[in-house]
Amino acid sequence: MPWSTRMKIALGAARGLEYLHGAERSIIYRDFKTSNILLDADYNAKLSDFGLARTGPSGDQTHVSTRVMGTYGYAAPEYVMTGHLTARSDVYGFGVVLLEMIIGRRAVDKSRPSREHNLVEWARPLLVHNRKLFRIIDPRMEGQYSTKAAIEVASLCYRCLSQNPKGRPTMSQVVETFEEVQSMPECQDILLQNCMTGSVTLYEVPKEPVEHVETEKAKQEPTAKTDAVAVGVPPTNGKPVPQSRRTRPANGRSKSEPPLECKLYIPSPDSDGHQLGLEALASPPSRNSSRDDPPPVDEDLYKI
Q1: What is the mean pLDDT of the chain?
Q2: With helix as H, strand as E and coil as C, how does the chain read?
Q3: Domain limits at 249?
Q4: Which residues are catalytic?
Q5: What mean pLDDT is predicted for residues 71-96?
Q6: Does residue 254 form part of some domain?
Q7: In a shared domain, residues 154 and 42
Q8: Is residue 57 very low, low, confident or very high in pLDDT (cuts 50, 70, 90)?
Q9: Are 7 and 174 in contact (CB under 8 A)?
């Protein structure tokens, strides 16, 4: 999945959380993860599975106390430790999903080395080091993003994953940052370049010149045509006609015309018509087998 598509999905999901948090009575999603983001044919993100959603704090409340529920690797650390749920808890979960999109790995992957099992613990410190950042970005997106845009998105992800809830941005700030990144001239140029390079190749121009290709085809053509012309050539003086005489055209004649040595015999109306094809051309018709000849007369019938 290209960089532009991943950023489009992230922005769509961020707008969904922004809508929930900005309601008259805010709603905390509580279980934000990649599997709860649905995509349509145009990769527009939609949030699903609101089974664990809770209404946010009201009045003078700063948080909602509830039993810890959610998915390991996506839940905010303060929520796991205290059970205190706020809108910033969803921001942390969004940061985990954004990190998955940037790095191209799952939040928890036991198949990795032990120090890389937890994606946040391993990758978050590297997001603020530019040289290390470009080493861990998904290599499948190489050349699809600008350096400035990648650094800006990585910085946003780093703040979303802050251990301190107050150090995380609001979802409105997240949406604003994504919109600014997409409007960067560098991002527009790369997006246009990717669209141009994504065209379909209808045919490939031959690498060799046309004259060379035609010459090679002529060399590879079988000699069946010249052999077919010489099949009906009768022998001369009891000896086969040399190959050079069969295939070499005379002056002023095209190759399609029969050579001078070729004697064509056309059956006359008096022939039996049984000889066909090359046999009829190779030998003259026989008068002995004609059906138009009168039958022999029995002389005994006329004896007195």
Answers
A1: 77
A2: CCHHHHHHHHHHHHHHHHHHHCCCCCEECCCCCHHHEEECCCCCEEECCCCCCEECCCCCCCCEECCCCCCCCCCCHHHHHHCEECHHHHHHHHHHHHHHHHHCCCCECCCCCHHHCEHHHHHHHHHHCHHHHHHHCCHHHCCCCCHHHHHHHHHHHHHHCCCCHHHCCCHHHHHHHHHHHHCCHHHHHHHHHHHHHCCCCCCCCCCCCHHHHHHHHHHHCCCHHHHHHHHCCCCECCECCCHHHHHCCCCCCCCCCCCCCCCCCCCCCCCCCCCCHHHHHHCCCCHHHCCCCCCCCCHHHHCC
A3: 222-286
A4: 31
A5: 94
A6: yes
A7: yes
A8: confident
A9: no
Asked if 145 and 79 sit in the same domain, the reply is: yes
Q: How many structural domains does the chain have?
A: 2
18 & 160 share domain: yes
Looking at the domain assignment, is residue 209 inside a domain? no
Count of C-beta atoms within a 10 Å radius of residue 94: 27
- For residues 235 and 274, membership in a common domain is answered with yes
**Residues making up the chain, counted from first to last:** 304
Residue carrying structure tokens 């064509």 = 264
Which amino acid is located at 148 in the chain? K
What confidence tens digit (pLDDT) does each residue in 86-120 have?
Answer: 999 999 999 999 999 999 999 999 999 999 999 99
